[in-house]
Design a protein that fits this description.
The protein has 247 residues and is of the alpha/beta class. Helices cover 34% and strands 26% of the residues. This is DUF6602 domain-containing protein.
């Protein structure tokens, strides 16, 4: 009988974590100009998500728009549908994604703090307030249905924390506060040097689950995919609502 090959998944995960942490720290140390530093960090997270999420998901720095012509603030990381998105506009370096196609949005900062959580929450409100359509579609059984809209996932991605302990009571209070703001709640995130986290909403009782620091990256990535899985596909866009802008 041949031997069974075994892989040290824990070691692989920790090695990837160390490499990502080192790259982010290098960016913080040497990208002196704040704008350059922010853009480089966002690009790093976008590349990471493109590497790990299945190809059905597209990831860009973008603005989200709806059929009424309203737009969100610029979002650092937008995870949206690649297969069924009818249009994505790239105009003079700005990417515009229809609201119906969005699965998740993320704010990227160097550290997590009360101020940064409040700032991220307001940006997420600008996305969730947009109108999303859902066109009638015919499924494989021949039934005509309209997919219910799901809640767009939101999160924050940072290198470090401004608190000590990094993900302690002050952090939890700030995350809980985001859930009191209409459309502003934060679902998950990654603080590379401190841990990953996700919010579990059990009958309106919130519990924040966190990982060990050395598992922060993989905990976040697996939690994100776990939360994306039940969403299925995005709703079909009612194209007539957008065609009115052409006609």
């Amino acid at each position: 009988m041949s031997e069974v090959n075994r892989v040290d998944l824990s070691g692989l995960f920790k090695s990837r974590q160390k490499a990502t942490l080192a790259a982010q720290e290098l960016n913080r140390e040497y990208a002196v100009h704040q704008g350059t530093k922010g853009e480089a960090t966002e690009t790093s997270w976008i590349s990471l998500l493109r590497e790990y999420l299945p190809n059905r998901y597209a990831i860009e720095r973008a603005m989200v728009v709806d059929s009424n012509g309203e737009a969100s603030e610029q979002i650092d990381v937008v995870v949206f549908d690649r297969q069924y998105t009818p249009f994505v506009i790239n105009y003079e370096g700005l990417v515009y994604v229809p609201a119906e196609s969005v699965y998740a949005v993320f704010e990227v900062k160097q550290d997590i703090s009360k101020e940064h959580i409040e700032y991220a929450s307001k940006k997420f409100q600008s996305v969730r307030r947009l109108k999303r359509t859902s066109a009638l579609i015919t499924d494989q059984t021949g039934r005509t249905t309209r997919k219910e809209l799901f809640e767009i996932l939101t999160g924050i991605l940072t290198l470090s924390s401004s608190w000590n302990p990094g993900l302690g009571d002050s952090f939890e209070r700030a995350i809980h506060q985001s859930w009191t703001e209409q459309h502003g709640q934060i679902h998950l995130g990654c603080v590379l040097s401190e841990g990953g986290f996700r919010v579990i909403n059990d009958n309106s009782r919130l519990k924040i689950e966190t990982s060990d620091p050395e598992a922060s990256l993989m905990y976040f990535l697996m939690s994100l995919f776990k939360m994306l899985q039940p969403l299925g596909t995005v709703p079909a866009v009612e194209m007539d609502k957008y065609l009115k802008w052409i006609e």
